[in-house]
Amino acid sequence: MGRGLEDKVALIAGGGSGIGRATALRLASEGARVFVVGRRADRLEGVVAEVAEAGGEASRLPVDLAADDGGDRAVDAAVAWGGALDILVNAAGTFPYTPVLALTDEDWNEAIAVNLGGVMRTCRAAARAMAASGGAIVNISSTNAVMGDKVSACGAYSAAKAGQLGLTKQFAAELAPAIRVNAILPGPVDTEMLDGWLDDPAERAGWMDRYIPLARLGAPGEIASAVAFLVSDDGAYVTGAVIPVDGGMTLV
Ligand SMILES: NC(=O)c1ccc[n+]([C@@H]2O[C@H](COP(=O)([O-])OP(=O)(O)OC[C@H]3O[C@@H](n4cnc5c(N)ncnc54)[C@H](O)[C@@H]3O)[C@@H](O)[C@H]2O)c1
């Protein structure tokens, strides 16, 4: 028996790679029709082809979600393709390594534009599209929203990811009961976003042993599993929640 994802229209922001790609494949495998948006046309086309090869239905549009009209363009295109919108997953993001003492206004504006402004505008556009029929939204935040980290050095990212939690709770409060809105806090996940982060294998292993009780990186599919739970009927009584999927990184 399915758990209510059959024929649902799901928009995955940042669906061309990493966690977004894994989420698109996972939701499609449970019968959802997925619309992926992001910056890179070739990556989006690759995901659409992967979904089709697995027997699912998908489409895509390259959209810059840092732009003021990015959220509206993404949602309008998903609705035009799917005829409705039932699910939004915000997985687009950038992770600039900038120590706070070196943080320029330009770095700040860039990181906030996609990681916070883009998420707000996509949530707002999706909520308007879902208002009559209902739906579910998941924001992929980060453990950086709730803890400092000497190694990763990304104050603008942490501020944006913490801001996503405020947005998640406020949208959840205002939009219940029609629309459920939740956030996931991934710990370090094995995606392109970690390219250049602790490149030295010994240093990385030492960091894992020290900070991650489960002592390994997460897999993108492990975040997608949590998303699938939250947007399906299994998660029907969950809204405004902030769920760590982080190998235990934030357990203390
Ligand atoms: N990988 C990790 O360790 C980790 C940990 C915590 C949170 N996250 C969050 O998970 C989400 C997905 O990241 P990922 O790890 O899959 O990395 P990723 O780099 O593979 O995915 C990020 C995606 O966002 C897209 N994107 C970036 N800027 C964009 C823009 N302006 N417009 C449209 N698309 C844009 C990229 O093209 C990419 O496809 C991000 O929000 C990230 O902050 C990742």
Fold blueprint:
Elements: E1 9-13, H1 18-29, E2 33-38, H2 41-53, E3 57-62, H3 70-82, E4 87-90, H4 105-130, E5 135-140, H5 155-175, E6 179-186, H6 201-211, H7 220-231, E7 242-245
Parallel strand pairs: 1-2, 1-4, 2-3, 4-5, 5-6, 6-7
Helix pairs in contact: 1-7, 3-4, 4-5
Bound molecules: nicotinamide-adenine-dinucleotide.
Kindly describe this structure:
The protein is of the alpha/beta class and 252 residues long. The chain has one domain: NAD(P)-binding Rossmann-like Domain (Rossmann fold). Helix content is 43%, strand content 15%. Strands 3-2-1-4-5-6-7 form a 7-stranded parallel β-sheet, with helices on both faces. Helix 4 links the parallel strand 4 and strand 5. The chain is globular and about 50 Å long. The N and C termini lie far apart (38 Å). The site of nicotinamide-adenine-dinucleotide (NAD) has 28 residues, from helix 1.
CATH hierarchy, class = Alpha Beta
Shape: globular
Q: Which radius of gyration do the C-alpha atoms yield?
A: 17 Å
* Small ligands present: nicotinamide-adenine-dinucleotide
Distance between the termini: 38 Å
Helices, by number, come to 7
Please tell me the CATH architecture by its name: 3-Layer(aba) Sandwich
Number of strands: 7
Q: Which bin fits the share of residues in helices?
A: 40-55%
Strand order of the largest sheet: 3-2-1-4-5-6-7
Give short descriptive properties of this protein:
alpha/beta; Rossmann fold; seven-stranded parallel sheet; 7 helices; binds nicotinamide-adenine-dinucleotide
Question: How is this structure best summarized?
Answer:
By secondary structure, the protein is of the alpha/beta class. The chain contains seven helices and seven strands.
